[in-house]
Amino acid sequence: MNRLMKRLTPGIALVLLIGNLAGIGTAGASGDEAAYKMAHADAVAALDMAKKVGGEWRDARWKKSKAVKVEVEGKTKKMSNLAAAEAYAKMGDYEKATQYADIAKFQGVAGYQQAMDQKNAGPQF
Amino acid sequence: MKRLLIGAFAALLTVGATATLAGQSEDLQALRDYMQNRFPNLAFMDYANGSYALDAAKATQWESQRDFPPFLDHLDEGEKIWNTPFTNGKGFSDCFGSDPSKVRVKYPRWNAEAKKVETLEGQIVACQKANGEKPLKTKKGKIAYLSAWLASQANGQKINVIVPQNDPGAVAAYEAGRKFFYTKRGQLNMSCADCHVYNSGMQARGNLLSPVIGQVTHFPVWRGKWARATGGKDGFGTLQRRYDGCNKQVRAKPFKNQGDEYSNLEYFHQSMSNGLTIDAPDYRE
């Protein structure tokens, strides 16, 4: 058993080393880039739908929104949920990027639904 | 039973038709009746004083602000802008007429040719563009000074926004403005009417919500909140700047200033104050 371990150990070490080297290019990255890209595309589609009916919410993707604080290059910046998603994606944090893209998508869907519900809005007296 | 059902159906149809076809005068009367019910002791002309007509303590503070209006220098600047000729030698009076006291009361109005609502600030910009001048920004600053000065020249005249009922475009613009006013929007799911009709006179945090009737008589307004943001230097803003702020407060994305949405809203909103006297500019919290 010991002999077997002695033979296997350099091999395992080599595999681990190669794995680590492969990871150098995405140091600090977390989450799944493909999942983020899909969430971002869904969010944009949902927000475009809301925009068409005048139902966009303030903090979904409005460029003057200050809803989310993100640390970018040592400075704290305030931005919309979609902008926060994009900022985190740029930093390689796809987990957080996907979370904010999902929030933006939810706000797009809800804004559209709200506008549809209010189609016949009028005085209630 | 059959008669009862037919009667009920007919009644429903009538109610539906009224809701759809209610015009400007019906809207105005219904709103006045609602407010009269809500504030039985408030005289019609007092609506021009907004929430100060509902709270004696706030009214005292407001009166003391009015003793020393913080906006007099800005009004002088507005007059100066009116009198400064354009590079081509013409001036604002070539667009609006030589009597500045007749300008404010014309707006907002329906332009049948352009098929859109014209607002005072929108026309100031249009006049500048037509004369090759760099247009002013439409929410605050110089346009508010000029607009406020023009409004001050019209003080004592009554608001009288007329929606020509024989022009389907005008009626549609008015209806769009009315719908905007009653539509819930934004993350807080609130309409203009939620605050300024159904909850007027109630507190929203430290603010007393003003009734919709009378809200436009004193615009462009000098707001303490806006003045504080500039270190007290400039608290002036146009009516559409206020719309922008309201939309942001309910967490809706604001619409383009002087775009169709806000201009149609202004058409409806101003017409709900028909009969009230212009008293501008004025101080508000």
Supply the key terms.
heterodimer, A: 125 residues, mainly alpha, two-stranded antiparallel ribbon, 5 helices, 8% strand, B: 285 residues, Cytochrome Bc1 Complex, Chain D, domain 2, three-stranded mixed β-sheet
Task: Please tally the helical runs of chain A, counting DSSP H or I stretches of 4 or more residues.
Answer: 5
Mean pLDDT of chain B: 93
Number of continuous helical runs of chain B: 12
Q: Any idea how many domains of chain A?
A: 1
Given helix and strand content, the structural type of chain A is: mainly alpha
> Strands of the biggest beta sheet of chain A: in what spatial order?
1-2
Overall shape of chain A: elongated
Number of domains of chain B: 2
CATH class of the largest domain in chain B: Mainly Alpha
**Sheet/helix structural class of chain B:** mainly alpha
Count of extended strands of chain B:
7
Sheet with the most strands, sense and barrel status of chain B? 3 strands, mixed
Q: How helix-rich are the residues of chain B, as a percent range?
A: 40-55%
- Which value, in Å, is the CA radius of gyration of chain A? 22 Å
How far do the termini of chain A sit from each other?
87 Å
CATH topology of the largest domain in chain B: Cytochrome Bc1 Complex, Chain D, domain 2
The biggest beta sheet of chain A reads: 2 strands, antiparallel
Low-confidence stretches of chain B: 7-21
CATH architectural label of the largest domain in chain B: Orthogonal Bundle
Largest interface: A-B, 19 and 26 residues
